[in-house]
Amino acid sequence: MVGKPSKLKKNKPLLGNHQKCWIWGRNAVRETLFAGFWPMYELHLSDHLKSEEIEQLEQQAARSTVPVFISTDKELTQKCRASDHQGMIAKMAPFPYTSIELFNQQEITSPLFLILDRIQDPFNFGAIIRSAEIMGADGIFSGTHEQCEVTSLVCRTSAGAVNHVPLVQATDLVSLCRDWKQNGINIVGTAMQASEKLNDYNFQQPTAVIVGNEGTGISPELQAECTHLVRIPQQGKTESLNVAVSASILLYEASRQRNFS
């Protein structure tokens, strides 16, 4: 379809304002379109893309009744305010978090959950989501206070993984941890001075791992709920790892134990 996109009705909410409602980049847009989980209002494609790829995307968009518009690269850049769109941008609805009630309807034999305690940088958030999806986490749980939302930058950094792992917002992470402990799920946090090393913990047990805020780490309230505190062995002089890197290491060790033991 070539032409001007119609204006969205006022009752249709956007991901952000009209400058921030766009996701862009080949991986992010393709994954979101084909997953069909996150409502997409419009798909805009560059006229420089190969005709075969345009046809494939148009066919998938038709299945989801998403209108497609062919534009120049310059027009795409003007819409999303970014030049690295790789010829694909999409206008999005707000991200559809999974409700805790819906998530609890699943039957997970030995869960691996990830708890995010006030992660504020969208690049960290997206990178954590990407690692969690790749390493097989069953769900990511974040609070509603001082926590980054799923934005276009989060989606792009996650390479579209936001569509493939449940993201749950919980108003009270402390109560959530207490409920999990009553159901036999261990709560594992990290601490530089912890006596237990990361690889000494048995991740084949039902486990929820907590990673904390970029500046202050895990809050005292959540750390008090931990059944285990572990440390990532370090050899260098730098005091701590980036939170996204820490999360990746924790999740890799969990995946290694669960899949290659």
Report on this model:
The protein has 261 residues and is α/β, with parallel strands linked by helices. Helices cover 33% and strands 18% of the residues. It is built from nine helices and eleven strands. It has helices at residues 26-35, 51-63, 73-80, 100-103, 122-134, 152-157, 173-182, 220-223, 243-260, and strands at residues 22-24, 40-46, 68-71, 88-92, 112-116, 139-142, 167-169, 186-190, 196-197, 207-211, 228-231. The protein has a seven-stranded parallel β-sheet. A four-stranded mixed β-sheet has the order 1-4-2-3. Helix 5 packs parallel to helix 9. The model has no long low-confidence stretch (mean pLDDT 93).
Concise structural overview:
The chain has 261 residues and is of the alpha/beta class.
Tell me the series of helices and strands, N- to C-terminal. EHEHEHEHEHEHEHEEEHEH
Alpha-beta classification: alpha/beta
Average predicted confidence as pLDDT: 93
User: What best-fitting shape do the alpha-carbon axes yield?
Assistant: elongated
- Largest β-sheet summary: 7 strands, parallel
Strand order of the largest sheet: 7-6-5-10-8-11-9
Distance between the termini: 52 Å
What radius of gyration results from the CA coordinates?
20 Å
Quaternary: single chain
Unreliable stretches, pLDDT < 50, 5 or more residues? Answer: none
Strand content: 15-25%
Q: Could you tell me the number of beta strands? A: 11
Query: Helix segment count?
Result: 9
- What percent of the residues sit in helical stretches (DSSP H or I)? 25-40%
